[in-house]
Amino acid sequence: MGVIDLFCNTSSLCLDRPKLSPSCCSLRRSRMTFMTPPAASAATPVKEDDQQECGSSLSGDSFIRPHLRKLAPYQPILPFEVLSTRLGRKPEDIVKLDANENPYGPPPEVFEALGSMRFPYIYPDPESRRLRAALAEDSGLESDYILAGCGADELIDLIMRCVLEPGDKIVDCPPTFTMYEFDAGVNAAVVIKVPRKSDFSLDVKRIVEVVEQEKPKCIFLTSPNNPDGSIIDDEALLQILNLPILVVLDEAYIEFSGLKSRMRWVKKFENLIVLRTFSKRAGIFFYLSKS
Ligand SMILES: Cc1ncc(COP(=O)(O)O)c(C=O)c1O
User: Fold this and answer.
1) Looking at the domain that runs over 108-275, which CATH code has it been given?
2) CB-based pocket (< 6 A), ligand 1
3) What is the pLDDT of residues 44-95, one digit of tens each?
4) CA 41 centroid distance within chain
């Protein structure tokens, strides 16, 4: 059985082979494994220049779920190697500003900790017990309420997979982080857009109407919002939390606001999920707070 491992960021996952004939394809965290049919390459001579026929005249694409075939491709960021070749500059001479990354890299303690991991060859704890205990201590929210994911992007997708049936509706409030709309498409959900007002505040009145009329399952709210940094005030949030809808409050940039996270509100509101991420907190914010 042939196995190809691709390590990739789920947000920039892109299948780009003209004819794909997997017998099995699984995605676990950010590691993707394709298993090809048993010893096909050993037993049968393979014409390399030719695209292989699978079964009758089925194309690889025909195995992909129809709604995914219609999706507009996500535009992933370009890695240093590609940028470097395109720009004719060394990676060290490029400062990327398109993905809110920390251009300085991690502090030396991170390399030391990674280099001294005790069992790097064993799968890590699937329940992230030590991390969740540390986060519980840091946040004052018991670890039973905390789920660790491979980035907020993975959690957004997991929430949708757990909550949405194909055809269910979500509310999105653009301009905002585009991953909610993209993942909704992947999960065959319908996106109802309630655009923000000209000052980027939420149009709460319209959200209430849409929830009553369209009965969406969940709403994605971002505070501080990406791209403008606007904050959702308590009054607006409480009004939305009182609706019969799952509220996913994305606080990826909360550290930059100087405001307190609403993480602990989850104990009071059964319909609230709060997202936070190390990619901002321990990335560029770490440097800003130290400088
Ligand atoms: C609002 C917002 N939420 C979530 C994310 C994704 O975070 P992560 O890096 O943890 O996947 C981003 C990334 O830019 C973001 O802007």
Assistant:
1) 3.40.640.10
2) 100, 151-153, 177, 222, 226, 250, 252, 277, 279
3) 455 555 455 555 678 888 999 999 999 988 888 898 889 999 999 998 899 8
4) 35
